[in-house]
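In this section we walk through a basic example: taking a raw amino acid sequence and producing a predicted 3D structure, encoded as discrete structure tokens. The instruction is simple. Fold the sequence below.
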Amino acid sequence: MNQSNITLQEFIQTHKRIRPYIRHTPLEYSEELSRLYKSDIYLKLENLQVTGSFKPRGSLNRLLTLDEIDRKRGVIAPSAGNHGIGLAYAAKRLNVPAHVYLPKDADLGKVQSLEMVQSLERYGSLLKFFDSIEEARLSALKAAKEKGYIFLSAYNDRTVISAGGTVGLEILDDLSDVDTVITCMGGGGLTSGMCLALKCVNPKIEVWGIQTKNSPSLAVWYQNGKATPVDLKPSIAEGLSGPIDPETITFPIIQKHIDRILTVTEEDIIDAIKIMLNSQYIVEPSGAAGVAALKQCDEELNGRKVAVVVTGRNISWSRLTSLVGHTTNTIHCLQY
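The resulting token sequence is shown next.
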């Protein structure tokens, strides 16, 4: 099926379906960033979403569209953290067994959030750890095939893409004359959904996707016009990192509808985390990528109304303070 045919009505129906379980997160005007880049910059604060990231939107939409037989079978997903937390939350709210496979080096803050959200014994759920995210993915696929679980990709799924578009609808509700929307990209589920939803309403809105220089798969594919091998390096933004399915349905959407793709360095991301801390928001590295990209294009942003999606906040305190170079005694009055 051609995924580019997701209609505005489908995005609206998706938002109505998941709305009872999520927050319409704030679109907050940033005085500091607007002054710095001579434009009107707003932050779409999905770090204030339930579970601390935008991910529950996709999991909720997938589970809510399952029939009763599939719900009883349960769902399974590999995750670097936020996708698993989102799935655990959705499964708990809808009383569906969920199995989350994680890499052993997953951020401790995300693991603790998962354990807190997911009442394991009560809901028949399971956390399992593997040496890498790729091993977790392959093992989850195998378990789905052998045991009949529904496999839920973090991006390669129409219902996840449709849910990503609901972030765009909320931005338009709060800022109907937005010129440019900037969002980070891992596998592209959020970005492809936002591209379609925003341009359904106003084709003139520009959508910019942000990846890390260490894991730039979609950026390279976009430049080459096709899926090609990419040399991947570790990144502090684990939610944007790792291999992407070459057959993903997100890439054709991004290839056709996105206006620009930028990449950011690890240092850029750390600087963006510090900027967000100055505004009293805790943001994880993946969530800060959109803010990190602003300094690359300050002249192009001049005079625009820009919405930057801040996608998540789930990071352990020890890792946060290590990244920004402070001790826990030197950062005060943080709210999230």
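Looking at the output, two observations stand out. The beta strands are 27-29, 40-45, 75-78, 98-103, 126-130, 150-151, 180-184, 206-212, 260-264, 305-310. The longest helix spans residues 158-174. In the next section we compare this with other chains.
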